[in-house]
Amino acid sequence: MISRDVTIKNSVGLHARPATFFIQKANSYKSSIWVEKEDCRVNAKSLLGVLSLGIEKGMTITLIADGADEAQAIDGLVNFVDSELANL
């Protein structure tokens, strides 16, 4: 199991459209992946779960992955949040 903190930089946070892209990226990995904000942990492959966290610009979340490609999943999702998601 691997985890890493990441700060959301795009202007709208993980709402609707950006969350959909994030979930599509998470679904490209075989590992189980979660997003944690404060004491709440949700499945990163679930749109309702991610939206329920109300993640806004400037918030720091923890990405957690467990499985065969966990390192690639964390690296890929952190890179996605830091680069591609920041430009949406």
Mean pLDDT: 95
Poorly predicted runs are none
Count of DSSP H/I helices: 3
Q: What global shape is seen?
A: globular
Provide the CATH architecture.
2-Layer Sandwich
Count of DSSP strands: 4
Strand order of the largest sheet: 1-4-2-3
**Helix percentage:** 25-40%
> What structural class do helix, strand and pairing data support?
alpha+beta
Task: Kindly summarize this structure in a few lines.
By secondary structure, this protein is of the alpha+beta class.
Secondary structure blueprint with pairings:
Elements: E1 2-7, H1 16-26, E2 32-37, E3 40-43, H2 47-52, E4 60-66, H3 70-84
Antiparallel strand pairs: 1-4, 2-3, 2-4
Looking at this protein, list some descriptive labels:
88 residues, alpha+beta, Histidine-containing Protein, Chain: A
Explain what the structure shows.
It is a single chain. The chain is an alpha+beta fold. It has one domain (2-87): Histidine-containing Protein, Chain: A. It is built from 3 helices and 4 strands. The chain starts with a strand and ends with a helix. The relative contact order is 0.32. The model has no long low-confidence stretch (mean pLDDT 95).
